[in-house]
Amino acid sequence: MRVFAFRGRDLVCQQAVELVTDYLEGTLSRPARRRFEAHLAGCPHCPEYLAQMRETIRLTGRLVPEDLTPQVRDEFVDLYRRWRSEQQ
Amino acid sequence: MDSDSEFLLRLRSGDERAFVSLVERYHEPMLQLAASFVPSRAVAEEVVQDTWLAALRGLENFEGHSSLKTWLFRILVNRARTTGSREQRSVPVADPEPAVDPSRFDGGGGWADPPEHWIVAAEGRLEAGKLADRIRAWIDELPARQREVVLLRDVDGMSSEEVCTVLALTGVNQRVLLHRGRSRLRQLFEDEFREVR
Question: Which of residues 162-191 of B touch A (CB under 8 A)?
Fold first, then answer.
């Protein structure tokens, strides 16, 4: 009975790739998540696809803001001082 | 990282260094975000300058219902939207856009042209700085709405709730845009770094 309840229709790869973000965001329902994971367990390619999406997120997340130039920094110090003098 | 309340205290009491470190942290991310709403870098810079001034002037009224960062980016987006007047934005996410080109699947929806391996090559073939430049260029080419979500979520590290607040998106639309943006980036990595066969 239990198995039957969770089986539903099997996912195909083309559907699985559309669920990756919901899967990573944790927004799939429990049965949908099981279906997704069952597909991964039996698919030779989708685990690689999921790994690539994770790697995409990891590499994007490593970007760091460029440093401010001294000139821009000085402009902001001025801006702050002007604001402070408005306050007085 | 200092807590918001500590930061606010320092800002309100005239601590220049607190302000500069806030600017150092958020100025560049704000510029990148603003640029997706307005026609030029120069206009984006104006919007960001205005935002900083508005933020300082509004500091007294900041009540801490959201994080300082969310509050700041919300001011920015409101100003950028007004300036950019790209107001067809209120109907987002209509067209279907598959994560992977449909021609890569067979009639049954299985991979016919499976994902090519690139993870090892991505870091091996380019030095870190060049790779970062490449990724930045790809993000710049994403459709504006996808770019905004990817920047805030994956580059700036905001939570999905914060992104929804800043961009006034529903959770579902935020995820759709994130999914499309990330999927496009994955494809660009694959195109760039697939192993030569």
Answer: 171, 175, 178-179, 182-183, 185-186, 189-190
